[in-house]
Each structure stands twice: as C-alpha cells, then as structure tokens.
Amino acid sequence: MHCESPIKRRKSRQIYVGSVAVGGDAPISVQSMTNTDTCDVDATVAQIRRLEDAGADIVRVSVPDMDAAEAFGRIKQQVRVPLVADIHFDYRIALRVAELGVDCLRINPGNIGREDRVRAVVDAARDKGIPIRIGVNAGSLEKDLQKKYGEPTPEALVESALRHVEHLDRLDFQNFKVSVKASDVFMAVAAYRLLAAQIEQPLHLGITEAGGLRSGTVKSAVGLGMLLAEGIGDTIRVSLAADPVEEIKVGFDILKSLRLRSRGINFIACPSCSRQNFDVVKTMNELETRLDDLLVPLDVAVIGCVVNGPGEAKEAHVGLTGGTPNLIYIDGKPVHKLDNDHLVDELEKLIRRKAAEKAAADASLIVRS
C-alpha cells in the first residue's frame, strides 16, 4: 500500500486543455485519439463516451477537412471530456474549430503555410484562450532537416520542435505544449531528454505508431517509463493499433506502476506454478474482467501459495493467499478462509466492499479538509 512516488518531476509551465491542467504540479493526464470517421458524429460520440468511461482526461479527434470541422462542432456539444482537434495543412480548419469551442489545437506551424496564416491561427487561439500542441514526428520531418541529418535523429526532432517554438515565441504566444515522437524507443527518449532541458513548456509524451496491443504496450511502457521515471512528461498518449480504450487502460497502468497516478485496482499476482492451491491465471482473468468498472485506487494481491502469499497480502488492501484453506487478508490482517468453490464470487464481493469503504473514507477526508 505504497502511496508516494520517489520521482521528482521536471518543472514546467502549466497550461489548461479545457478544465484539465497540464504541466506544473498537475497530475500527468492520460489521453487517446478517436479512430472513427469524424463525420460520423454518432459513432465518434459513442467512442468518446467509452473513452470517458475508461478515464480519459483528454481526447484528440482528427479534423482533416471542413466537413469534419462542422462535425467536430456537433461532437463537442455532446461530450464532457476536453477535445483536441488534430489539424494539418489548412489553417482555415483551425480557425473554424476555434469558433466551435475546441479545447486545444494540435498543429505543426511548419505545415500550416505562410506567416500570416500561422499568425491568424495563433491570434484565434490567443483570443479564445486555446492552447496549441506542437507535434513533431520522425515520419514527417521537414525536407531540409531530412537532407541535413540524412535520416530522422533525436537532434533532428528537437531542431524541428525548436523551430516551431521560436515561431510561436516571435508571435508572443506561450500557451503551448510540445511532443517529439518516434516509433523507435531510443530515438524518442533521447529527443525528449534533449528538449526537456531547453524549454519550460509541458511535454506530451508518446511512442508514435508503437504497434499492436501487445507489442505496442511493451514498447510504450519501456519508452514512456524511462522518461517518466526521470520526471519528464506532463501528459501521455499510448499509440496502439487497437481499441482506443486500451490506450487509456495501458496509460493508467504505466502511471500506476510508477506511483504517478492512482485509478482502479493495482493487481499483484504471481505467475503461478505447481505449488498453487487454486487456478491463479483463471482467477486473475475473471477478476480483471469483473472489476474493470472500479475506479477507486486499491491494491489487490492474488498469490497461489504460502511462499510469498502472506507477505504480499499484508501489504495490500485485499489479499488472497493459496493454502489449505485459502486465506483472505483485509488491510494486512487475515480475516476469512475460503475454499476453491465460488472463490472468485466471494473475492469479488470482498473487493467491492473494501472499495466502497475506501471511497467513503476518501470522500470524508476531502470534506473535512
């Protein structure tokens, strides 16, 4: 039941994406991006609501043309979570979604066009208090930087980012965050480290085009974990070729593992072996599915035998140790004996009861403070 993270975060300027603070001492936010056709308003709203239910702090929506911009306006009216409009090339789209209430503009000043067009976007953002994300990707570097470096490198990514930062500096606009994404973990990590030392704005972390659910999760956990453990990063997006809801789940799991955010159950479970007194894998699969709706931070240990079981159970809010019979711990103390019949049903009841008690206690503390 550890609470504090030993990580000392990089100091950064704080901005707001809608009601969500990004940077400064704000919690590291978790975001995702819709993969529906933006012009299909019903489908996009339905997906955003699923992301909201999963805990998304921010959701990004691609807006490739003016029809999508008009659809974005209708989508915005039907959801609660702050929305970022992802825009390239046509500055008029940015101006339109600014009128329609966008919470953040994701652009590359370099592909928006002439100075007067960039200025028009920045002026609209300034007038309406809308932040901008400068998004640099290894796969879309400027041609002169590709020629200079020969291939994408951390230095090329940072030079591109600083070029855009200087552009906004000239326009006296500081309400922005920056990302320097690559699909290669080492390139992305090196680029973020270089950039973190040179600007004060918040950093949006991501390993772009990370892969499918399994490989992309691993790659993102390694890359983002390296940076977050060093205190670098103010908001994260896990990029998976999968259901976007999985991006939110993985994002929170990464932050939970580093004690940077607490949301839902933190399971401690053994991989199982011949010493197990119950089917650990089956039990865990059922518990994860059944308890996916719980948002209260809770440590739950599921250990198949008495070698490590008691020690892990004593450190959890709820612990199950395999034995004859199995033993349940609540807040570190043994309180129940359970046989294998209806084990998951009984354990689910105990976990939900403990979650309700903890939620009530946490609410009481907030009221008193």
Structure description:
The chain has 369 residues and is of the alpha/beta class. It has helices spanning 41-54, 66-76, 91-99, 109-112, 115-128, 143-149, 154-170, 185-196, 213-229, 244-257, 280-290, 309-314, 343-368, and strands at 15-17, 20-22, 29-33, 58-62, 83-86, 104-107, 132-137, 176-181, 204-205, 235-237, 265-269, 298-303, 318-321, 326-330, 333-338. The longest helix is centred in the last third of the chain and has 26 residues, at 343-368. It is elongated. The two termini are 22 Å apart. The protein is 44% helix and 18% strand. It has an 8-stranded parallel sheet with strand order 8-7-6-5-4-3-10-9. A 5-stranded mixed sheet has the order 11-12-13-14-15. A two-stranded antiparallel ribbon has the order 1-2. Mean pLDDT is 94; it is low at 365-369. It has 13 helices and 15 strands.
Round the Cα radius of gyration to an integer and report it: 23 Å
Q: What's the helical proportion of residues?
A: 40-55%
Shape annotation: elongated
Structural class: alpha/beta
Strand order of the largest sheet: 8-7-6-5-4-3-10-9
Mean pLDDT: 94
Structure summary, number of beta strands: 15
How many H/I helices? 13
Low-confidence runs of at least 5 consecutive residues: 365-369
Largest sheet: 8 strands, parallel
Strand content of the residues, in percent?
15-25%
The ordered string of helix (H) and strand (E) elements is EEEHEHEHEHHEHHEHEHEHEHEHEEEH
